[in-house]
Automatic annotation (TrEMBL):
The chain crosses the membrane at residues 6-27. Keywords: Membrane, Transmembrane, Transmembrane helix. Residues 172-193 are annotated as: Disordered. This is Secreted protein.
């Protein structure tokens, strides 16, 4: 009888350890959130003055609110129109960087809405939803949004525009974003973006 109780106790402790690892340490906690959100995790921790518990609570809430979002597919015509619109915006950058950055911001908002992300007036809500599904690319969107009216210099606007192309490609594609972002005209020198 004593052996059976010890075996049951050990099994319960092992089950609790597995549960703790999966729920707090893996899928829902620190390492899982850090892995899922990448640089966005660090940005949120910094915004919470290093309080990882508060940052992880915020990121858990984002996943709860936006994790089940179903992306709507784009028609080929819509995909072609967005591609043409981005190309026009990119060409416009040479003559009017400020206007091109503002157009890129609006274009990303329109594309996100058409793919099924929140269409509300709140940029932060849209960026939070995008961060759940495109955490590696959402910073470019944040940079373009802030560069459109924060007095950024041309080089900062160019960098934001180039970085935002990653989110554009990710939203436009059904799969992962292509490696070549097609921003050669805006990059320095002859290298890729």
């Amino acid at each position: 009888m004593t052996t059976a109780i010890i075996v049951i106790a050990v099994a319960l402790v092992a089950a609790a350890a597995v549960y703790f690892f999966l729920v707090r340490g893996g899928a829902g906690g620190g390492r899982g959130l850090r892995s899922r959100f990448g640089p966005e995790y660090d940005r949120v921790v910094a915004r919470h003055n290093g309080d990882t518990k508060a940052a992880e609570h915020e990121l858990d809430e984002r996943v709860r609110r936006h994790g089940d979002l179903e992306k709507r597919p784009l028609t080929e015509a819509a995909r072609a129109e967005y591609t043409a619109r981005w190309a026009r915006t990119q060409e416009q950058f040479v003559e009017s960087p400020q206007q091109a950055v503002a157009e890129a911001d609006a274009l990303l908002a329109d594309l996100a809405r058409d793919r099924g992300f929140p269409a509300g007036e709140s940029f932060d809500e849209r960026a939070d939803a995008l961060s759940v599904h495109h955490a590696r690319h959402v910073d470019g969107y944040r940079r373009v949004h802030s560069a459109r009216d924060d007095g950024s210099g041309t080089e900062e606007m160019r960098e934001a525009f180039v970085e935002a192309r990653g989110l554009f490609d990710a939203l436009l594609a059904d799969g992962p974003a292509p490696r070549d972002h097609g921003n050669r005209q805006l990059t320095k020198g002859r290298g890729t973006s």
